[in-house]
Design a protein that fits this description.
This protein has helices at about 10-15, 15-25, 40-50, 110-125, 130-135, 160-170, 200-215, 220-235, 240-260, 270-290, 325-335, 340-355, 420-430, and strands spanning about 55-60, 65-70, 80-85, 85-90, 185, 195, 300-305, 310, 320, 365-370, 375, 385, 395-400, 410. The chain is α+β, with helices and mostly antiparallel strands and about 450 residues long. A hairpin with a 5-residue loop joins β7 (about 300-305) and β8 (about 310). α4 (about 110-125) crosses α5, α4 runs antiparallel to α6 (about 160-170) and α7 crosses α9. The structure holds zinc ion (ZN) (2 copies). This is SET domain-containing protein.
């Protein structure tokens, strides 16, 4: 073969201008160049309207692609947005420390229940790992999640029967009535992995995702064991898979409930028709999985509420954080006047010692927030995600760090700005950034 074989072929030469045009990157702000982006923007417009977030709008620019702009002036500390998650999940290890509603991520039960259950799980965890696994998957603990990786807390400081009476609600700690939490509602499917703050959250979770993901007795045995394997695998690797499963089940459940019964199907056959639709959906999912599965990557896609597939690069997954009432409680005790504090600490001191430094662990997880995820990163952001005292659930709350003028872009930092340069860069790499895109990094 001569060198001629690498020169352009006749077709390359003939269509050179057209090929060059195809290879040019179209400007991001051109809606015509990216017709598939249009539904996303309509989706955001509708979302903003339905949630009455009239202070912001989702826009696109040639410089930064998609972003969020202010529709009005904001002062420092003003609330810009309370963004409801599309889908989210608590980190599996965090379930050891924080018992929250599986739907809205509000802390549930009581301060006593939170402390008692955490001490209980940690106490069986420190014996040996095998025993811990068995207990965690057993019927006496309301969690089916993986429990390996417990921290070393000396739970021996509190006797087991005291822990049990805390969990059962027989023992009351002083001043906990100031920190009332919603009582615990069970999963309608009978699994022990999910707990809720109310019947309405239990029902919403069931209708949105959980009816397809429940490992309770209402689920047919073969599907249950497959689900258990899936949940164990996700817990042992990356809980982003649980979030992805919720996004997929959400879309599938919407679809087979919405499909109209065709005219030639008798209403008495509706059940079998819906079952056929489910089978079609499962086959489609299997084909999709075969088509897009890339072992090198986390899930490559996500779905918006209409079932549009949105690239993960467009919809960043973000941290879900809810502050712990257990931390608030011990801070409250510490701030009491000396005489009251001394009296209260006689009771609370041993529990604080047993909990150790982890007493303040918040609820942590991964979630997709449709509007927050449109906000661009800046190392000098003008807004931040910040939970105020009244924000007790999994909503993302964005407040202004400085006055923001109408039409200014609203930016947040995706990472901890106080970290050293290399760590910030490593964290931003998760979002597809390199230092090229974040030129305002200074080490
Ligand atoms: Zn709830
Ligand atoms: Zn369940």
């Amino acid at each position: 073969m001569g060198w001629n074989s690498v020169s352009p072929c006749d077709l390359d030469r003939e269509f050179a201008p057209q090929i060059a045009q195809l290879l040019t990157t179209p400007p991001l702000h051109s809606a015509k160049a990216f017709p598939s982006f249009r539904p996303s923007f309509e989706y955001y417009d509708e979302l903003i309207e339905s949630k009455k977030h009239d202070g912001i709008r989702v826009t696109s620019s040639s410089k930064h692609g998609k972003g969020v702009c202010a529709n009005k002036d904001f002062d420092e500390d003003d609330l810009i947005l309370k963004d409801q998650m599309l889908v989210g999940a608590q980190h599996s290890l965090n379930k050891l420390d924080c018992i929250v509603c599986s739907y809205c991520f509000r802390f549930i039960g009581s301060v006593e229940f939170q402390i008692g259950r955490r001490l209980y799980l940690h106490s069986i965890g420190t014996d040996n790992d095998g025993a811990f696994e068995r207990h965690c998957h057993g019927s006496d603990v309301g969690s089916s999640t993986s429990c390996s990786g417990a921290t070393n807390v000396n739970a021996n400081a509190v006797p087991q029967e005291v822990i049990m009476s805390l969990m059962a609600g027989d023992m009351q700690l002083p001043f906990t009535d100031q920190f009332a939490l919603p009582s615990v509602a069970a999963c309608p499917g009978g699994c022990e992995g999910e707990l809720y703050c109310s019947q309405s959250c239990a029902d919403s979770d069931w209708d949105s995702y959980h009816s397809l993901l429940c490992t309770g007795s209402r689920t047919e045995p073969s599907r249950r064991s497959a689900l258990q394997k899936f949940v164990e695998h996700a817990n042992g690797t990356n809980d982003i898979f649980l979030v992805a499963a919720k996004a997929i089940t959400y879309t599938m459940l919407r679809w087979w409930e919405c499909v109209a019964l065709p005219e030639d199907v008798d209403s008495s056959e509706e059940d079998s028709f819906r079952q056929q639709i489910r089978d079609v959906a499962f086959t489609s999912l299997q084909l999709l999985k075969d088509a897009i599965f890339d072992p090198e990557c986390s899930p490559l896609f996500s779905l918006d509420v209409y079932g549009h597939i949105i690239g993960m690069f467009e919809l960043n997954n973000l941290d879900l954080v809810v502050a712990s009432p257990v931390e608030d409680y011990f801070i409250y005790i510490d701030d009491l006047p000396d005489s009251e504090k001394e009296e209260a600490e006689k009771v609370t001191g041993p529990f604080l010692d047993a909990l150790g430094e982890d007493y303040s662990v918040p609820c942590e997880g991964t979630a997709f927030f449709p509007l927050q995820s449109c906000m661009n990163h800046s190392c000098c952001p003008n807004a931040k995600a910040f939970k105020r005292d009244e924000d007790k659930d999994g909503h993302a709350v964005i407040v202004a760090l400085e006055p923001i003028g109408k039409d200014d872009e609203i930016t947040i930092s995706y990472i901890d700005e106080d970290l050293p340069y290399e760590e910030r860069q490593a964290q931003l790499a998760d979002y597809g950034f390199t230092s090229y895109y974040t030129g305002n990094f200074e080490s």
